[in-house]
Amino acid sequence: MPVIHVIGLQLLCNTNKEGMLEKAAKLIEKAMENQKMVDLIAAPEMYYQRFGGDSSQEEFGEEPGGRFEAFWKEIARTYHTNVVTGSYAVKTQNEEKVKNRALVIDREGKLVGYYDKLHLFDAYGVCESDWSLAGNSLGLFDLDIGRIGIEICYDLRFPEEARALSMSGAKFLVIPAAFHQPRFDHWELLVRTTSVVNLLPVLAVNQSGKTERDRNGFVGRSMLTDAEGRILAQASDGEGYFLGEIDFETVKAVRKKNPAFQNQRRDLYKEWIQ
C-alpha cells in the first residue's frame, strides 16, 4: 500500500463523555463526505474525559471494554478503517490512579492492542502522576497499512522513544496530545523535529481551545508531517478535522538520500541509550 489516507480529529473536552463521542462521530461523518476511503482515523489525548475537567461530575475513568472502546470499534467497522482512538483514563487495580491509554483498532473492529503513556507530565506546574500510572512498553502495532508507533503528548519531549520506535520498524508515528498553551512553538518544533531526525511521517492530533476551568488551554495545530518535517495537512483553530496522505515511496526516497540509520555511530553511544 504505497499511499494511505488519514483523518486527524481536533477536539476539546468540554462536555460529558457521551457528548464528546457525539462530537467525534459528527466530525468523522463530515470528513467522510469528502474522503470515500480512509485507512486511519486518529483522535487526541484525554478528550473523552479529563481529570478535574468540565465532566468531573462523572466518575473518572472507565473499565477496559466499556463505552469508549465499543464506540471506536463501531466507527472502525462502519467506515472500514483502522483507528488510533486517542487516549482515555482506564481504571487499574490501584483504585486511586488510572492509566492514560490509547487503543489501536483494525478495520474489522478488533482491538489490536493498547499503549499506556510512558512519560507522565510532571512539568510546568502540572503533576499527571497524581492521578495516572505510567506504562512500561513501547507502542508498536502491526496493521494492514504497516507497523505504526504511538506516543502520547509529553512523550514527544523524549527523543529516545521515537528513535526506538523508528528503529523497530514503525512506518510512521501517531501522537495523540493535549499540549498546553502557551507553548505553540514547542509543539510544532517537537512534531516536525521528530519527523526530521527519524525520517518518518508523524500524525499528531491535539486538543484545541480552552474551557472556563482551564488556566491556559491547548494549542491545537494538529498536523501531518512528512519524513522531512514538512507540514502536509493541518487543522485550523478550534475543533475540526483534517485529511492527509502518507506516501511511503516518498519516505523511501528520503531515506535513500539520507541513510542516517546506517550512518549513526551506535558503537560510541549505545551504552547511554539502552
Write a structural description.
By secondary structure, the protein is an alpha/beta fold. It has a single domain (3-251), classed as Carbon-nitrogen hydrolase (Nitrilase/N-carbamoyl-D-aminoacid amidohydrolase). The chain is built from 7 helices and 17 strands. It has helices at residues 17-33, 67-79, 159-167, 184-198, 248-257, 260-263, 266-269; strands at residues 3-10, 40-42, 82-91, 98-105, 111-116, 122-123, 126-127, 132-133, 139-143, 146-150, 172-177, 202-206, 208-209, 218-219, 223-225, 231-234, 240-247. Strands 1, 2, 3, 4, 5, 8 and 17 form a 7-stranded mixed beta sheet that branches. Strands 9-10-11-12-15-16 form a 6-stranded mixed beta sheet, covered by helices on one side. A hairpin with a 2-residue loop joins β9 (139-143) and β10. The chain is globular and about 55 Å long. The mean pLDDT is 93.
Q: Could you name the key traits of this structure?
A:
alpha/beta, Nitrilase/N-carbamoyl-D-aminoacid amidohydrolase, 7-stranded mixed β-sheet
Task: Record the SSE blueprint.
Elements: E1 3-10, H1 17-33, E2 40-42, H2 67-79, E3 82-91, E4 98-105, E5 111-116, E6 122-123, E7 126-127, E8 132-133, E9 139-143, E10 146-150, H3 159-167, E11 172-177, H4 184-198, E12 202-206, E13 208-209, E14 218-219, E15 223-225, E16 231-234, E17 240-247, H5 248-257, H6 260-263, H7 266-269
Parallel strand pairs: 1-2, 2-3, 4-8, 10-11, 11-12
Antiparallel strand pairs: 1-17, 3-4, 4-5, 6-7, 9-10, 12-15, 13-14, 15-16
